[in-house]
Amino acid sequence: MSAPLLEVRDLHVDIPLAHGRLHAVRGVSLSVGTGEAVGLVGESGSGKSLTLRALLGLLPRPARIISGTVLIDGEDVTGLPAKRLHRRLTDTMGMIFQDSLTALNPVMRVGDQIAEAPLRKLGKSRSEAKSIAVDLMRQVGIADPERRYRLYPHELSGGMRQRICIAIALSTKPRLILADEPTTALDVTIQAQVLGVLRQLRQNDQVSILLVSHDLAVVSQTCSRLYVMYAGKVVESGALLDLVSAPKHPYTFSLLRSVPDPDQRVARLLTIEGQPPDLSHPIKGCSFAPRCPFVVDLCHQQEPPLVPVGSASGTVARGSACCRVDTAEQWTSMVSEEVVGQP
Ligand SMILES: Nc1ncnc2c1ncn2[C@@H]1O[C@H](COP(=O)(O)OP(=O)(O)OP(=O)(O)O)[C@@H](O)[C@H]1O
Ligand SMILES: [Mg+2]
After folding, report:
1. Residues enclosing ligand 1, CB less than 6 A?
2. Is residue 291 domain-resident?
3. DSSP code of residue 260
């Protein structure tokens, strides 16, 4: 079997504080295959953005990588000299951020912003770069790209601006797009269109996608495999269908129950009570235990590692970091019966 396009092993990121440190990413491992769309979901503050930014060397100060290994096509790139590492990462990956208005330069025509990388990084002539930019605008579903090339960001709608950001991310010909909440600022219809553009890129151009969102509905529309993050760790991973039909971690279960399901008469949506733990203090036991509806004494004693668990689909590996994973079917069915089907 060939190595995944991107693999991250045991990534740790922390943020120095006046007294101590915030251990924001606590040993995240993940992989993305060629042409695969993978989702990273979890509540606000779970460490999704820091994980993504760490991958591209774009951590905000004072956050820093403590340890971890990044492999591209199976090659450990972590030890490369800084310049070569940056080159290798940016050649492979492009990033899209949540807020297209601040991501774009307000005083530069949008087309020129897309043409910049072909011009400066790929060494294309001005006219070649422009024609690449126009093609990219067309590829991300912008009609009449020659005219729109000349517009400034404020002259475009939020959805159009986000398409421009996708085109910029594609302009260096990356094999993988890292997208951090790319549709959160958009209304539902435009959100669906932008996610459609990402899906098409994957299907038609084999571009891999690592999509970060706090919204399970968004990743479900786009990704076939998920990593669920909680308090700086991956607590469950596996095929979307496996996770949605039979979650093996109470946090995934709670996330699912807090998403309205149009096909089921969910009478009452569960909200996840309580707050995630303060990661500036050491965690004792499972980090989700204080909020877990299925907690037992054992959960407070040790933090469970992510271990392989059986997959219904059989082909995609799945894992769960729950002390009670063996009895997952019992607890999920118990609560499902309580919640579903009531008037
Ligand atoms: N520049 C920073 N300075 C201090 N703390 C930070 C900084 N950036 C992130 N953090 C903290 O690190 C933790 C993880 O942040 P991160 O932005 O990765 O979360 P997230 O999962 O992306 O959340 P969201 O869904 O809100 O974007 C949070 O507790 C956050 O407050
Ligand atoms: Mg974030």
Report:
1. 15, 22, 24, 42, 44-50, 60, 63, 214
2. yes
3. -
Q: Which residues, by Cβ under 5 Å, contact ligand 2, an ion?
A: 49
Candidates 168, 189, 178; CA nearest to 112 is 168
To test the pocket of ligand 1, the residue of 11, 17, 22 to mutate (highest count of ligand atoms within 8 Å of its CB) is 22
Q: Residue 292 is part of which domain span?
A: 246-339
- Nearest atom in ligand 1 to 214's CA: 25
* pLDDT one-digit tens code per residue, 98-144: 887 788 999 999 999 999 999 998 889 999 999 999 999 998 889 99
206 in the same domain as 97: yes
pLDDT tens digits, residue range 50-89?
999 999 888 999 999 999 999 999 999 998 898 899 889 9
Domain identity same for 109 and 173: yes
Domain count for the chain, please give it.
2
**Angle, in degrees to the nearest 10, between helices 250-257 and 328-339:** 20
